Amino acid sequence: MRGVDVRVATLADLETLLRFEQGIIAAERRFDPTLRPDPIHYYALSELLASPRAVVLVAECQQRLVGSGYVRIQAAKDYHLHQQYGYLGFMYVEPGHRGQGINGLLLASCKQWAMAQGLTELRLEVYADNQPAIRAYEKAGFAGHMLEMRVAI
């Protein structure tokens, strides 16, 4: 996509990344009645930025951050064929920039980083009712694998 660059995030981006995190939480509240009231955080962003086992990426348009995502190297279960995989998270595109292919650019860059680390699989979690996100991930080649279920008691 012309005019959008994907790069590795730095600590200088932290303020914007924290705002993106709150955007994700606000969007996902309608899908998850188990979330505590604000303020909450999903991610330890400073730790992710410093970790050699993860990369936080940002999409930049006209010198302004408009999207984010990360890949973290995770240990696989002992019974899986692979020993580790890339776990995707923090996927966010600002509302005014959605539908322009930015999420696809971020996903492709996450995949490239994971492959460079020798990983052969990417995984992510998405709320079952979040159909726009599911469609975006399916467009990028992801398929449903395991459905986590819950019941309040």
TrEMBL record:
Pfam families: Acetyltransf_1. The keyword Zinc does not apply. The keyword NAD does not apply. It comes from the Bacteria. One of its GO terms (molecular function) is acyltransferase activity, transferring groups other than amino-acyl groups. Keywords: Acyltransferase, Transferase. Residues 4-153 form the N-acetyltransferase domain. InterPro entries: Acyl_CoA_acyltransferase (IPR016181), Bact_Acetyltransf (IPR050832), GNAT_dom (IPR000182). PROSITE patterns: GNAT. This is GNAT family N-acetyltransferase. It comes from Hymenobacter lapidarius.
